[in-house]
Amino acid sequence: MESSSSPSNDPAPPKTNSSRDKMRHFPQEIQEAFRTFEATRNPDALDPVILAILDDFIPKKTEVPLATFPGSTRLIEDLGFDSLAITEVVFFSEELLNISIGNEELMQVRTLDDLRGFIRKKVSPAPAA
Amino acid sequence: MVRLPVITGIGFVTSIGHDRSTVVSSLRELRHGFERHQFLNNPDLPVKVAGTLKGFSFPSPSWRDWSWPTQFSVDRELLRGLPPHGVYAMCAMQQALQEAGLKAADLAGGDTGLFCASAGSPYLLSHFVRDMYATRGQRGNPMGIISSIAGTLNFNLAAFYKISGAVCGFVSACASSSHALGYAMDEIRLGRQKRMLVVGAEDMTDESILSFASLRALSINPDPGSASRPFDRRRDGFVGTGGAVALVVEEAGLARDRGARIQAELVGWGQAGDGHSVAASHPEGAGLREAMWRTLADGGVEPGDVDYVNAHATSTPAGDRSEALALNAVFTRNHARPKVSSTKALTGHGLSLAGAMEAAFCVLALDEGFIPGCAHLEQIDPICEGLDLPLESLNEAPSLVLNNSSGFGGSNVCHLLRKAG
Question: Disulfide check for B196: which of A32, B10, B249, B356 has CB 3.0–4.6 Å away?
């Protein structure tokens, strides 16, 4: 039997993965919501996507769905995010939405509502391609 | 007060098995862990064999795509910062702790330390750096460094097991985890720690292994059944492997007080440099010879007391030659004839993992009462004249065994292990 190599060997210049590829481990309805956002640029469609990203990187799963938490829920104190998990959410969102999030901006984001509002603001003006 | 370090638990993720009994039967029956392997998806490369880790898969740098045998569990919170060899290490640790009768909670509190060895993950590091180039430094995976640099094992395992004793990583290439075990013995002997966890691991990826082809160090023999043949006249290089081995080392008194079964005693170690070359071993094995003498002196024994030597021999023409000369200088010239074999004929060369893996094989030999034979050895190199190289594994219980390791820059480390008394 011939075992296969890791596919890490593409000699072509590095490319970041497509958004479809980045979303492939999310539930179908989340992928659908993201496609709606891509087609319409309507930030409302992003709300379930943001929650799904948080749910994906949260260090310890919550007992009830994140969508049931009030907007004032704090990411660190209430949901148990640590600074590393937050940087992972930021990195993933930057890549997916083609935005850049600065450290100072990040310091202002403490709650679910902060995060939703912040990402909405970031994607509202059509991002530079 | 003399404090004796003993081994109470070992765990394996190796090309020849992922549990104690499979590893023992592979060693007894000389069953190798090699498969044909296509590196870099390039059928034209002459290197065609690797020591593979069955049931593990790391098809992309994203941990979401990784899988491992179902008998192991790897915490999702931990995965985000792990390299592939960190997954192996977690699986090996679970076995070692279970053998030692320890729970994760027993490891906190400062009496337990953790020494690790790996070369990091060139696989993940290369992806991290490529992304950095692609975004011109504007974005990067936050876990990129943690999961890829040398030290990643101790970062991850120390945090996961809440180790508040000594925590350190060792980097001396193929002697790395032998250094980790030697210094772990010292921590116990000096009374600084009561228990040490020692983990050696390496990725089994193109990036970790094929890189050695540029040094012309890898075998280009395409036959998995003979590519790794230490001490054979026709040997042409090593076969690479990865995996992880974990050892629980404890002060004998602590082990006895808590009713743990002692598998072997660690009675000596020593090291010496070649002072010769960045990569090649000393042509007469000067550093390894001295390291063996220092180890025997540390254990207070004579060459004639040693029953078995687990040689470093990786199946390279020059390295095996140096070791054969060093072994003859220490043993044959002093009328001692321990059995000698290199288990790399079965596993392949585990690089930073090798020393800990082979120390654990020595524990098995002492604890289960056998001597691993020299697999794939058909035409003994005349340089080995004087050495006792058994072609089959022997049902002979050794009492005292020596484990040899050598790394780049001429770093030579040996351990002396004794049957639990």
Answer: B249
Q: How far apart are CA B250 and CA B260, in angstroms?
A: 10
In a domain, B67, yes or no: yes
Q: How far is B296 from chain A (nearest CA, A)?
A: 42
**Which of B235, B257, B279 is at the close of a domain?**
B257
In Å, what is the CA distance from B136 to each residue of A15, B131, B211?
12, 8, 26
Residue-number span of the structural domain to which A118 is assigned: 20-123
CB spacing of A5 vs B39 below 8 angstroms: yes
pLDDT tens digits, residue range B353-394? 999 999 999 999 999 999 999 999 999 999 999 999 999 999
Which residue in A2, A9, A21 has the most chain B C-beta atoms within 10 A of its own C-beta, making it the best mutation to test that interface?
A: A9
Helix residue ranges, H only, B300-403: 317-330, 344-347, 354-368
Give yes or no for B164 touching A (CB within 8 A): no
The model's pLDDT over A17-69, given as tens digits with 9 standing for 90+, comes to: 677 788 889 999 999 999 999 999 998 999 999 999 999 999 888 999 999 99
- Is the reported ipTM for this assembly greater than 0.90? no
Residue of B47, B56, B77 to mutate when probing chain A, most A C-beta within 10 A: B77
Structural domain includes residue B93: yes
3-state secondary structure of B269: strand
Q: Where are the beta strands (DSSP E) in B185-293?
A: 195-202, 243-251, 264-273
- The answer to whether residue A10 sits within a structural domain is no
* Nearest CA distance, A64 vs chain B (angstrom): 18
Q: What φ, ψ does residue B233 adopt, rounded to 5°?
A: -60, -30
